[in-house]
Design brief:
This protein has about 400 residues and is mainly α. About 85% of the residues lie in helices and about 0% in strands. Helix 1 (about 5-35) packs antiparallel against helix 6 (about 170-190), helix 2 packs antiparallel against helix 3 (about 70-90) and helix 4 packs antiparallel against helix 5. Keywords: Membrane, Transmembrane, Transmembrane helix.
Length: about 400
């Protein structure tokens, strides 16, 4: 294996380990504090700083990598995640609700910085190290993104299982220990091959002047907002109300079932992303138009689910079945959209500013997640599941409208 490929493999392995811990941590925090009686809005607040940190970090990370090199951002991401886990393990159950929310928000903010440093390193490495040739970049992007999300899905189930079997504190300490070993291994064995930084890089250069990058970033923001509106708070809280009887045993059973569904959704999403080049044959020749068509296809799904939830009037067995089937379909269409977007941003990115274009794009991604997270708690609190899913539909519609001009601009 040549050095660039070894460097890419090492970055990818570190990214997998990071995303496993990231998925587990999200489920640990969500289910643990939901069991403590946090409201949907309070649960959403726990993740807000995580997403705000992502907006700022992605912009800064692109410049940091261009200035100091990709290896520096990778190491920093892993180290900060370890620090966040250690801090969270020291949460005092005797603290007030306000103090607990503020503390967990701050820790999640550090974790958000960590995630986006690691993500930008891995995604930028694809553009720089992938072989040349028709469709090669699409295949490499799909493989990395799909495998990452499959691993994160396993993390969702791992987090729920650890909470049920080991408890919150032990689970968090265990993850911190494993991630520390990963950081040591990466630092020891990462071969040369990642680009070094350029001292003259200006921070102002992170803002993109390419209309394709800007349009795609806008569409990406609304696309991920559409997912997180139901994903962060709405559906997990609904399923918890349906599956748990309020007893400790009932809570544990609900943790496993909710974690299992969320894990299956993310794993399936990752698998579809990995298979996207085969499913979307010919998309590489007409990427922007293909992305616009698939975004249009996403819009009716959350609106149909919202109508079903409104018709049910509350939790019902048939509604739960419809939701599971509908959200799995949403996942397939969403995964194809996401895979096309992840490829297009690297195709559009300039050779001399890859990390900055990727950072700008994922800053928009984080803004969408922030918007979706906030609206998830607010919409569910204000109007229950029907309003939550209808809001997701509006976000998907906004993404589709943002993609229309990009399809006319084209890939050239």
């Amino acid at each position: 294996m040549d050095r660039p490929l070894r460097a890419y493999a090492a970055v990818t392995a570190a990214y997998w380990a990071f995303m496993l811990s990231d998925g587990a941590l999200r489920m640990l925090v969500l289910l643990h504090f939901n069991a403590l009686g946090f409201s949907p809005v309070a649960l959403a607040w726990l993740f807000l700083l995580y997403e705000i940190a992502g907006i700022v970090t992605n912009l800064a990370a692109g410049w940091i990598a261009a200035r100091f090199g990709l290896a520096s951002t990778l190491y920093s991401g892993l180290a900060l995640q370890i620090a966040a886990l250690v801090a969270l393990a020291n949460l005092d159950p005797g603290w007030s609700l306000t103090a607990s929310v503020v503390f967990v928000m701050a820790v999640q903010g550090v974790s958000g910085v960590a995630k986006d440093l690691a993500k930008m390193s891995a995604k930028s490495a694809v553009k720089l190290l992938a072989p040349k040739g028709e469709g090669a970049l699409f295949r490499w992007v799909a493989a990395l993104t799909g495998s990452k999300n499959a691993v994160k899905g396993v993390g969702f189930f791992l987090g729920a299982a650890l909470l049920a079997l080991a408890g919150f504190g032990a689970a968090v300490w265990g993850m911190a220990a494993v991630l520390t070993l990963i950081l040591i291994a990466v630092a020891a064995f990462l071969p040369p091959g990642l680009p070094a930084g350029k001292k003259g890089t200006k921070f102002a250069a992170v803002w993109s002047r390419d209309p394709r990058v800007n349009r795609l970033s806008l569409a990406r923001m609304f696309l991920f907002g559409a997912r997180d509106v139901w994903f962060v708070v709405g559906i997990p809280v609904y399923f918890d109300a349906v599956l748990s009887d309020g007893t400790p045993a009932g809570n544990r059973a609900a943790f496993f079932l909710i974690g299992g569904f969320m894990a299956a959704w993310i794993i399936g999403y990752g698998l579809v992303q990995a298979l996207a080049p085969k499913i979307l044959r010919g998309a590489a020749a007409d990427g922007p138009r293909a992305a616009a068509r698939w975004t249009d296809a996403l819009v009716p799904i959350p609106f149909a689910l919202a109508a079903a939830a409104l018709a049910a009037g509350g939790p019902a067995p048939w509604l739960t079945v419809v939701l599971v089937a509908g959200l799995l379909l949403f996942g397939v269409v969403f995964a194809l959209n996401s895979s096309l977007h992840s490829w297009l941003i690297l195709a559009f990115a300039g050779e001399g500013r890859v990390t900055m274009d990727v950072g700008f794009y994922y800053s928009a991604n984080a803004a969408g997640r922030l918007l979706g997270t906030l609206l998830s708690g607010l919409s569910y609190q204000a109007g229950g599941l029907p309003l939550c899913l209808a809001t997701a539909g509006l976000m998907a519609l906004a993404s589709a409208l943002a993609m229309r001009p990009l399809a006319r601009i084209g890939a050239a």
